[in-house]
Batch of 2 targets.
Target 1
Amino acid sequence: MKTIVIYNSQTGFTKRYAEWIAEAAGADCLALTDAKKKDLTAYEAIVFGSWACAGSISKISWFKGNIDKWAGKKLIAFCVGASPIDTPEIDMALKRNFNEPALKKVKTFYCPGGFRYEKMSTSSKFMMKIFIKTLNAKKNKTEEEQTMIKMISSSYDISDKKYIEPILQYLKR
Ligand SMILES: Cc1cc2nc3c(=O)[nH]c(=O)nc-3n(C[C@H](O)[C@H](O)[C@H](O)COP(=O)(O)O)c2cc1C
């Protein structure tokens, strides 16, 4: 199946997942800015990956805007975030990015990434600073919130190649 993996990545985690998927699936791999200039008609499967930003998938509007044009193709969207794979809210958060008709056409996946503050834009760093400050200021923090503050206050990497397996399995089907 002729496949392309298109990624939008700020600090490198999504790019690395996209390259892992492309290599394992024998697919082409392009950054979103380059994919926008390319004719995608010949591809039978389109895999789009981008990072989680405040509960949304960054640049998902580009992917959603093309769903009708891509009728008949296998469509996959994967989201890379800082949350561990077993975070209960992930499934709902992923689905919130699509309406009902789109969900029937797109299969969604989540891959844990991490935080890489040294590669983050100034505005992203600022948003994270506000988020951590707000969480810190909260009275009666739950155990989860306390763990989260500790975790997201500095860079970490929880990415692993094993998380691409469900995507590869779905591509093979
Ligand atoms: C402003 C901002 C908001 C974020 N929101 C979320 C979020 O809602 N859920 C999550 O799991 N990760 C969130 N993250 C973490 C990123 O999704 C994570 O660092 C991801 O691995 C970045 O991927 P990239 O390296 O491809 O840019 C956020 C990061 C930033 C900077």
Note: Helices lie at 13-25, 32-35, 60-66, 90-96, 100-105, 122-137, 143-152, 165-172.
Target 2
Amino acid sequence: MTIDWQRLRIEGVYKQNEDGQLMLRTKVPAGVLSAEQAIKVADIADRFSNASVHLTTRGSIEFHWLQLGDLPEVLRLLAAVGLTSRGACGGAVRGVSCSTTFSEGFAFAQVLARKIHRHFAGNPHFEDLAKKFKVGVDAGYARSRHLIQDVGLVFLGTGDEGRDLYDVWLAGGLGREPQQAFLYAERITEAQIIPLIEAVLRLYRRHAPKGKRLKFVVREMGETTFRRLLEAERARGPAELELADAVEKRLTALPHGPRTIVEAAIFAGQLSTGALRGLAGIAERFADGYMALTADQNVAFLLCDSSGESEAKGALGACGFAGGAPEERVNFRICPGAHECRMGLAPTRDIARQALSIMGEGKMDLTWAIAGCPNSCAQPQLAEIGIVAVKKAPGADGVRRPLFDLYRRRSEGFGEKIAEQLDLEELLRAIQELE
Ligand code: SF4
């Protein structure tokens, strides 16, 4: 049977290796997962994968080592708990990510993220795009993740007329040609957001060559022309579509007032099914049955009752997340790299462990990221120290080994490249010498 790998992508599937094993990515809108969903995910990984899952930097979940014949059953089981992988890969509106700095407004942002997900996931008007299309909703500007979205929405608060207000950033992205998003509009209302995203998508579909993202379209035509075309496109549709709710909708702790957050640091986002079931139990006991998959590949619980904090931390320790080991202490985003990704040039988890062992106490408080290829899934340009495997080249012994670029971020924008094409030894030395 000939398999159309390109077509499979729309179902959230990538070929993992030449042996026909697959990766399936599941969207988790806003990264908010219920305990029931977590248990179903663990059951699927036990049955069809390698008894573990990978948490991505966009709050999605990846299963690795799947077989093609198992996909229909895996998709059926995911659907039973309201999860879909439709559009999680390929040219589609990808999983809608949500700020997990848990600043004021997180509860509003995650509700909007779910509305956007419902509107665009599996909607044929917005599939078969030239390339991926990423939407992110953030509750504030901390961590700057609005800069890397095709559409980045930043929640500002509720205006005088009781309408929620957002800044809109467009055409950002990482990959081989990183591009910071530009501020398109300030203080637009929630009701304007879906018509605006639709207009951007129509424009993107019309102007993007195959394989190119929105950032390419804007770069080619220039921001001024793009703005003019977008205004004309918006005028063709409704200016507003009210998204108001009849009752308050929230899946995590209350939007206002003090919140207590307890977090399990998951090294490289690699979570065993046993640990995931343990975390589901903690969600049920302490967090109203929900957990949040964070942009740093961790699992957070927004406690309903702050008096349960020390007990919740004890329960996390019993699950193996006591927080003392360097792998847990250092905020280190790590993509699957050559361990599990066909694009991977370097074994990212191994290199991260080597970096942890030599970085020294002073650098443990910085944010770190390593990506196994220039696609930059670990968002290295947004970490204080970012590492990207850029190519493989033969060493003196003729063996091809990965070379790395090193980034340092000290301001609001992307990190600056401070060294390039280092071999592993040079990379580790450069890390030790970093100020
Ligand atoms: S950065 Fe490259 S190696 Fe890492 S997960 Fe993305 S595509 Fe794979």
Note: Residues 184 and 340 are 37 Å apart (CA to CA).
